[in-house]
């Protein structure tokens, strides 16, 4: 019971913090683009919290990888290690791998092809193609939509998909996670200002942290 209560309060805290940041964003947005940019500046509070959520999710994934359930089979270790690496990579990208913290220079392809002249992949532009727009906006947007809106309902009615999810032990979002993400996206879409994507990222990373902390399991999906 104590563990359940702790998980509940962590959910409440993450949702409250996310909504406070989004809500205050509307106050700042009323002051104009410059104030909004300053609110969501590099290495600001919102970005740092996003990084903490990413690192927290990566840490949970590592813990789960080496603490499998008694009935854990299939690709359990592979899935959680890959998720840990993916979210650690995202955290590194978010802070340009500590470039501004350790104050090292941008060199090589990052100097010539990075739109912000920083050491990260997501701001690269190669042959006129912006990596951030193609992969981290468009393709990732589709992947997030499928993951949050389609996977769980489809797993209820399509046995092969349910078996595949169970084999890889893929964590699925609970309905409160889905609702929180949808509300956050709707609210953030009302800004119509540059850098609003930073708040969407904050909401998404916070919710994924909660998904890793308390995922819906395939066996739960099947019976509910």
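Sequence proposed for the structure above (224 residues):
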């Amino acid at each position: 019971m104590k563990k359940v209560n702790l998980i509940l309060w962590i959910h409440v805290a993450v949702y409250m913090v996310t909504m406070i940041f989004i809500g205050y964003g509307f106050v700042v947005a009323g002051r104009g683009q410059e104030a909004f940019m300053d609110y969501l500046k590099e290495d600001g509070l919102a970005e740092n919290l996003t990084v903490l959520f990413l690192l927290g999710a990566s840490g949970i994934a590592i813990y789960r990888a080496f603490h499998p359930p008694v009935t854990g089979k299939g690709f359990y270790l592979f899935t959680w290690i890959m998720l840990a690496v993916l979210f650690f990579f995202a955290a590194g990208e978010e802070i340009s791998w500590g470039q501004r913290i350790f104050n090292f220079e941008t060199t090589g392809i990052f100097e010539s092809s990075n739109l912000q002249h920083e050491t990260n992949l997501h701001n690269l532009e190669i042959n006129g193609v912006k990596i951030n727009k193609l992969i981290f906006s468009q393709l990732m947007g589709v992947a997030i939509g499928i993951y949050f809106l389609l996977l769980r309902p489809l797993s209820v009615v399509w046995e092969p998909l349910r078996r595949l999810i169970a084999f890889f032990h893929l964590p699925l979002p609970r309905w409160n996670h889905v609702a929180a993400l949808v509300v956050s996206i709707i609210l953030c879409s009302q800004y119509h200002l540059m850098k609003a994507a930073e708040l969407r990222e904050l909401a998404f990373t916070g919710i994924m942290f909660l998904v890793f902390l308390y995922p819906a399991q395939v066996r739960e999906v099947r019976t509910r």
